[in-house]
Amino acid sequence: MPMSEDPLKSSRKEWIExxxxxxxxxxxxxxDHDIGLKTLxxxxxxxxxxxxxxxxxxxxxxxNGFKVDRMQAKFHLDMLENALYIEKIAADGIExxxxxxxxxxYLENVKPGNVNRKL
Length: 119
Description:
By secondary structure, this protein is mainly α. The protein has one domain: Arc Repressor Mutant, subunit A (Orthogonal Bundle). The chain contains 6 helices and 2 strands, in the order H-H-H-H-H-E-E-H. Strands 1-2 form a two-stranded antiparallel ribbon. Helix 2 runs antiparallel to helix 5 (about 70-80), helix 3 crosses helix 5 (about 70-80) and helix 4 (about 60-65) packs across helix 5. The longest helix is centred in the first third of the chain and has 16 residues, at about 5-20. It starts with 6 loop residues before the first helix and ends in a 10-residue tail after the last helix. About 15% of the residues are buried.
């Protein structure tokens, strides 16, 4: 019986293709890394990623959960979306944010115990 492709790997491939079609990945790897690094240097944005891991959230959820005004919440969410860590989805007139496969991978890699101590 042939092994089927890992569902997570398949999901990531689909996501990358979607991004290429919709937004276009036009940044070079160095620019992409720089944007990602600048985005994740802020502890609030890292906490927002963890918050989104629990459930999809609206901008109001972010405002209330982090005690920030709408402009601050939008700024953080826009940076995370630009760096491809989250995606905005709209359903029934409600905009929500959720983790992208890249955001999920980031959180998986920063879990306690996932650090290579042999460096």
